[in-house]
Write a structure and sequence with these properties.
mainly alpha; three-stranded antiparallel beta sheet
């Protein structure tokens, strides 16, 4: 078994990086090269399917270099093909950013967010859609993703690659609709903070969470700020980001 394992590891090393590793003894060069082409081609196909915008934005040489580096360096944690894109996001997040594409990790995270929401099979939690949003505990949709970015990822594409990061974080909310479509909305920092507070676990009521947001705002007109936050909470409920209130304990 030890010899078999050693042979498997040697073959895997060859498939990942044939420039630095030879195929183990017993493998015909032609056959080993065919396996390498199949492995590399399948990985590239999966990445291209999950990240079409990145594929279109990078030059061919940049794209090939990223695929080769991913094959060579990354150790995937999931065998599930639909979730394979997350592996590329994790890979880019731990790499030092390239001076040519310093926005690449952020763009990959943004592009994967849409796919992740499309395949999310989390059931909707029990909730009362007509519950009192102030007296009860608000329940957020599980089909939401609130992300902060250092680059204008919603604008990056073949015609635009920024050369400088944003002076302040860009907050984007992704929400899956009932028909399966995914919508993105740019949020202000205050709205993003409210969503963070609403999504926190615990028994705090909607009113308690709004009061925390009001305290953080440190505004003199607390009543006015609270009323504005309440209106925002009700808009989030109307659009489906907040489902209603918790049922039971």
């Amino acid at each position: 078994m030890s010899a078999l394992r050693d042979q498997q590891l040697a073959f895997a090393a060859y498939l990942r990086d044939p420039q630095r590793n030879e195929a183990p003894e017993g493998f015909a060069p032609v056959g080993a090269a065919l396996y390498r082409r199949l492995f590399r081609g399948n990985v590239e196909q999966l990445l291209a399917a999950n990240f079409p915008l990145i594929r279109a934005t990078l030059t061919p040489a940049q794209w090939e270099a990223q695929v080769d580096a991913f094959c060579r360096e990354h150790r995937a944690q999931t065998p599930v093909f639909p979730r394979f894109g997350h592996e590329f996001v994790a890979f880019l997040a731990q790499r030092a950013p390239s001076t040519a594409t310093p926005w690449l990790a952020d763009l990959a995270r943004h592009e994967w967010t849409e796919q992740a929401l499309r395949i999310d099979d989390t059931p909707l939690p029990a909730h009362d859609p007509q519950g009192d949003l102030l007296a009860g505990v608000p329940v957020c949709s599980p089909w939401l993703r609130l992300e902060a970015y250092g680059w204008p990822v919603h604008r990056i594409g073949p015609a635009f690659q920024p050369s400088a990061a944003l002076p302040a974080p860009l907050w984007l909310l992704a929400r899956r609709e009932a028909d399966g479509s995914v919508r993105f909305a740019e949020l202000g920092e205050w709205t993003a903070r409210l969503l963070q507070l609403l999504a926190m676990p615990g028994p705090d009521s909607g009113a308690q969470r709004l009061r925390q947001l009001t305290r953080e705002a440190a505004a003199q007109d607390e009543a006015g700020v609270f009323a504005e936050a309440e209106a925002l909470l009700r808009r989030l409920h109307a659009q489906g980001s907040v489902l209603g209130t918790r049922i039971g304990t």
